[in-house]
Amino acid sequence: MPEFTTLAERYLSIWNTTDADTRQSLVRELFTPDATYTDPLGSVRGWSGIDTFIATAQDQFAGLSFRRSGAVDGHHDIARFGWHLGPDGELPIVMGFDVIVTADDRIRGVSGFLDKDPGLIDGPVSRCGEPCGARTTRPARASRARRRRHARRETRGSFR
């Protein structure tokens, strides 16, 4: 069984490596050649796809760094861990967790999940596209009616 904490730390260090040549080398060392990476923002395969995805995220979040939050939990060939993205020494702007699948002490797959990001209103979005439990600035009567409509849609699975 691989040492999951070490793999998670190596993985996050790649996200913080801004030198392209060094990052590409680290991707080749840590990931299998046909590794996959999937999160709500995209899905890629292989060393080149993963490196390009990371480089794009680094451009988007310039000046911010990834750090692990909490312990790494794993069994067999799979592990999960939380992470934060933000300025060093400050509260995170983005939070999430990743699940990694390993093969021969390397990563062959990553599934990423966002728990908090600037695009989420008040947390997860329901099946009908409205934020779950979101508070509105509408009058209480309209808000109650909206919540009832929303609850009926969720119960019936109707999106009329």
Automatic annotation (TrEMBL):
Q: Where is the composition biased (Basic residues)?
A: 141-153
- The record places domain SnoaL-like at 8-108
Q: Check the record and name the SUPFAM superfamilies matching this protein.
A: NTF2-like (SSF54427)
Q: Name one Pfam family in it.
A: SnoaL_2
Which region ranges are annotated with the description Disordered?
129-160
Note the InterPro entries from the entry: NTF2-like_dom_sf, SnoaL-like
Q: What is this protein called?
A: Nuclear transport factor 2 family protein
Q: What is the lineage of its organism?
A: Bacteria, Bacillati, Actinomycetota, Actinomycetes, Pseudonocardiales
